[in-house]
Structure formats: C-alpha cells, structure tokens
Specification:
13 helices; binds zinc ion; Alpha-Beta Plaits; Aminopeptidase; alpha/beta; 2 domains
Length: 400
C-alpha cells in the first residue's frame, strides 16, 4: 500500500507531498482508496460531504465501529500524517480476517476529505460539515489562493456542492470512531513506547499584539529620546517563553510585521502574533494574561501603546474517558501495564467528531517528532505495532 501511495502528489524538488483537496493528486489518492475497498469486497460509498467510506456489514444496523484518517496533505507534508491511519485501518482489517475474527458490529474505514485545509484555509472541512460545525453556505464560499470557491472545486472533481451539509443520520449509526495517527511530537520517543492512546487535544488560540511607538531616524535619535516598540515586543517574546515554561504550556511568537520595516528606521509599529496552547483552558488563560501584563508593563515604562486582540480560540477536546481507558487496557503489555495515555497540541477529524460520537485516537511513535515536513518519519516496526494495536482495538470493540 505504501508503494502505491509513494509517488502520488510528491514534489520532485522538496520531496514533500502536495495533496490538496479536490486536486488531481487528491483524486489519485481517492481512486486508490476506492480500489482498496473494492479489492477487499467492502461496500464503497462517498457521503454528501465527499468523505469516503468502505463498509463491512450493514451500515443501517447501527452502532458501527469506524476507523480511518485522511489522505490529503499540508504543503510539502510528510508521507505519514493521514495516510498512516488509512493504510493501518486497511491492514488491521486484513489482520482481523487472518485471525478469523467474527464481527458483531458493522465496521467502516474512512478517508475524510480536506482535513489539512491547505487549499481553502480551514482544517477538517469534511468532518466539520458532517458534524454540523460548518454550515454548507459558509463552506461553499471558501476560496483558494486563485479565488476558486470550494463549491466550484468540488463540482470540477465530480461532486455535488449543493448536497453538502450536516449529516446527523450518518453520525447516529456510529457507535465509536478510532483514528490512528503518527505522533506529532516526541512523547512516545521519550517514554520508549511504540504506540500510545490520546487523552485530549489541548485548547489553543491566536492573539495579535500591536505595539505602537514613534518612527524616527536610527542615526540621529538619542537612545533616551526613543519610543521603540521593538524593545517592548522583545520583552514580550521573552515573557511568553517564561510564562509558558512556568505553566508547563506552549507560547510562540512565530509571525511578526514591522512598520515602516526599514533598516535605518526606529519602527512606529510592531505587530506580533502569539500562538499559545496548554493542557486546560484555565492554564491557557493564565499564560496569555501573564504575557499581556508583561507587554503592558514594558510598554508603560517606555511610552509604547499595547493592544491585544484574540483572533481565534479552540476549546479543549477531551476524548471520551470510557473508550480511552478501554483502549489503553486492550493495549496493555504482558505485565498488565496499560498503554501510555498522552495529550496532543494538534487538531484532527477525531477532535471534531468527538462532539457528536465517542471518539479515540492511537498515536504511533515518531522518532524525531517532526511533522508537516518531508522529514516526518516512523519506523516500520512501529507502524506494524500500530496495525496490531488497531486490530486489537477493533477486535475488542467490534468482534465476538
Ligand atoms: Zn493528520
């Protein structure tokens, strides 16, 4: 399966993947998924939102166990983010059949459409639409960098954009959703485990900090006469690092804009964007408040105006504890030690669906922690351990 997928959408220069929603590379991935489903004798269908489903057993029977992930990528993404979950789902089914497992609940394997949001700027469009967290009207109007709407792109790819929207009947037939994913971090590398179970997706948000001073000549303005917002910004960056360290959270200024942006000019405005994430919302609020206080204190000392605007916020996703603990138990080692349970700072379709159905995630060790990059990696032995773990979980949930 990896050999089939290897060349699809791979950029010859960067060796990264460019599998964007509703493009030719995406169509090739989807064709591959359909072929895998039919080869295995599964009933193949595409839902109203362009998500692909491969069914074993009767979907109408209800209480289905669903597993899968996505096949699209970020710009110059790695081979594992997404495809590892889809390939492992198919391989886990093969493994269960080889074990002679008897299914007592319907099983489905999915490929969710447009997970990364690389083309239209919003992540998890397929699952958001299905779960009713994105309206059809809003989705249809999303535009890519060339001004092409999502509706037009879907239509050109052979799907009906008028049909998209919330799909509660479909969700009502699902009893559990399990997504296997390459870990996007080093927790399993540090703990020495090939596979772990997700506890939660950390709450996260973006805040814009505007620092306003006075533009002036870099060669003629005495230091004591300056109102330089770059210094307040620098104080704020250091404060963010310190607040995050003290709270066990994350805080990053990764984007900055400067006016007038001249080498020989003291800036009039520095605008920096803070991305912050923490285990719980109270900690996150405390970190951001601490950064904001440090920015205002520094600004007051040097005559710099500070404005802070929250641009986005995503609340915590707590995966269902019953399913999470059941998975950790099913994956216990020979001494009865349950599989490690770990949180993540990254978003997933499983996070979106968790609002509507019991959802869980398995992570496979990533030896460098690098993700969203061609350097993303996982050892073959760990990938195989992931398949076995997923097969064990599906057997525990869906078989006699
Ligand atoms: Zn992913």
């Amino acid at each position: 399966m990896w050999n089939d997928l290897l060349p699809i959408g791979r950029d010859a220069g960067s060796h990264g993947y460019r599998r964007y929603a509703w493009t030719g590379a995406d169509a090739d991935c989807r064709e591959w998924f359909k072929a895998q489903a039919t080869t295995r004798g599964l009933a193949y269908e595409v839902d109203r939102n362009g998500n692909q489903w491969a069914w074993l057993g009767d979907p109408a029977a209800g209480d289905a166990v669903v597993t899968g992930s996505h096949l699209d990528s970020v710009p110059d993404g790695g081979a594992f983010d997404g495809p590892l979950g889809v390939v492992s789902s198919l391989a886990a089914l093969d493994e269960l059949r080889a074990r002679g497992a008897e299914f007592t609940r319907p099983l489905a394997i999915t490929n969710f459409g447009d997970e990364e949001g690389a083309r239209f700027g919003l992540a998890c469009v397929g699952s958001r639409l299905t779960a009713g967290q994105l309206t059809a009207a809003k989705a249809r109007e999303l535009r890519d960098a060339d001004g092409i709407t999502l509706a037009h792109a879907m239509e050109r790819a052979g799907y009906d954009p008028e049909a998209i929207g919330a799909d509660p009947e479909r969700l009502a037939r699902i009893g559990a959703f399990v997504e296997l994913h390459v870990e996007q971090g080093r927790a399993l590398d540090i703990s020495g485990d090939p596979v772990g179970v997700a506890s939660a997706i950390w709450p996260h948000g973006r805040w814009r900090f505007d620092f306003r001073g006075e533009a002036n000549h870099a060669g003629t303005t005495r230091l004591e006469d300056r109102r330089d917002p770059m210094l307040t910004y620098a104080d704020t960056v250091l404060a963010a690092r310190e607040q995050a360290r003290l709270a066990g959270a994350l805080a990053t200024f990764g984007k900055v804009a400067v006016e007038p942006n001249g080498v020989n000019a003291i800036p009039s405005l520095v605008r920096g964007w803070l991305d912050s994430r923490a285990a719980d919302e109270a900690t996150l609020a405390r970190v951001v408040a601490g950064v904001e206080r440090a920015a205002r204190d520094s600004g007051e000392r040097s005559g710099i105006g500070v404005d802070v605007t929250r641009e986005s916020f995503t609340p915590v996703v707590e995966f269902e504890h019953g399913l999470r603990d059941r998975l950790a138990g099913l994956l216990a080692d020979d001494d009865g030690r349950p599989a490690p349970v770990l949180p993540t700072g990254a978003g997933h379709d499983a996070g979106i669906l968790s609002a509507a159905i019991p959802t869980a995630m398995l992570f496979v060790r990533n030896p460098t922690g690098i993700s969203h990059s061609p350097a993303e990696a996982a050892d073959e032995d760990d990938c195989l351990a992931g398949v076995t773990a997923l097969a064990d979980v599906l057997e525990g949930l869906a078989c006699r």
